[in-house]
Amino acid sequence: METLNRLTCRECGHVYPAGPMQVCEQCFGPLDVDYRYDALAGRVTRETIAAGPPTMWRYRDLLPVDGEPPVGVNVGFTPLVRARNLADALGVRDVWVKNDAVCHPTASFKDRVVAVAVAKAREFGFDTIACASTGNLANSVAAHAAEGRLKSFVFIPADLEPSRVVGTLVYGATLVAVEGTYDEVNRLALEVGDRFPWAFVNANLRPYYAEGAKTYGYEIVEQLGWRAPVHVVVPCAGGSLMTQIWKAMTELARLGLIDAPVRTRVHAAQPAGCGPIVTMIKDDTDVCKPVRPNTIAKSLAMGNPGDGYYAYRTAKASGGTGEHATDDEIVDGMLLLARTEGIFAEAAGGVTVAATRKLVERGVIARDESVVVCITGTGLKTPDALASRLAADLTIRPTLAAFENALAKCWK
Amino acid sequence: MALTVRIPTPLRTITKGNAEVQAKGDTVAAVVEDLERQFPGLRERLVDEAGEIRRFINIYVNEEDIRFLDNNKTALKDGDQVSIVPAIAGGR
User: Fold this and answer.
1) ipTM of the predicted structure?
2) For residue A44, what are the β-bridge partners?
3) What's the first-to-final CA gap in chain B, in angstroms?
4) A376: part of which helix (H) or strand (E)?
5) Cβ-based contacts of B6 with chain A (< 8 Å)
6) Do A238 and B67 touch (CB under 8 A)?
7) CATH assignment of A110-207?
């Protein structure tokens, strides 16, 4: 990587030496890693990237990690699936699914951000890494901490599904179940981070953690043959992924790897029961009004999105918009993706598919334009979301006659 | 009306290193004014030119985000705890 070894506030421009730091001390704005783009231009080419490993680290020059990554060397470079059946169902010609449901090692895009965060935690000399999470982030932090020989603390709401809990404990993390909502857990974690000398992936490692998400955007462009799609539909919780996909595309243009300006329209997908970012976009206001989440898409249930303002700005800057999806629409979206493409996404993926469908119906996505649907986690961690809609079709005694009887009934 | 205000790390240089300070005021806005009297320079870090709480700062009264209450007009009573917390990114 080529960085200036400093962080700059995105809002007020205040500069700080590189280190563990959550926000600008002057205005509380987010801090960005400063790259030497002029030094990178010409040195990072399509060829140098293609010569790298088939992982997110093929973009290492554009990530804030020195030397070899200490953990997560196999993260990323997930399939970009040409989704012909889904395209038929949506009535659009050119649909692609960027499938981080199969991201190594914990089956969500969080592996990308955590791999960078853990590298930085080790570089800064921390022996403990922590996060507040209900699932995907928790799984990934625990797994990468195990690989990096760090202690890990994961703060979760106490009412979490057992499957999510096991998927964190298995890696040896200390799990702290907090009686409260996710937003309350997050707040507590911040206060804990103030008192204990730990690395918090989305607090004092935030400027670095966020950078890992860019690789999702780089991969989309490279896998499309160095072409930015016309549309990207992104599920939003805190709003960082949407912002970072856009940043990734604009960086590639800045480095001359794709045409500038980038014309991709970046759209936000959120549950109706927790959609403050989409509400900002629809109301065209840059003021985020927090909500109390009530949705089956638990991985998107952040009522107080930290990057909501920037997600809104990304939609505005790129000509994108947003859509809400109700719980029923989310389930329909999950089933549609599974039954057209054989991809079992978590509920957040159902939100994205549902939002894409609405954007097509509204005419925002024209039938002859390319669209990338962002799938960021697997459905296998939370099958309960679908349990009420799916039951075993045929239960029979172990005889051929019983099978034939049952089949006759179900075909009737 | 005496209450406790919890100060996040970035603002402790102004509060002489204190993570918790005492303040007076019957609304959040009044508490901000009182904090400014005690710790000059704190107000501009918390509110913008229009007097609104800055975009990247969350203020809680006891356990509740003031945007669910009455923003900086939120009424306070003796013994309330006010927390100033930077917006948190990412997650889940």
Assistant:
1) 0.89
2) A41
3) 38
4) none
5) 191
6) no
7) 3.40.50.1100
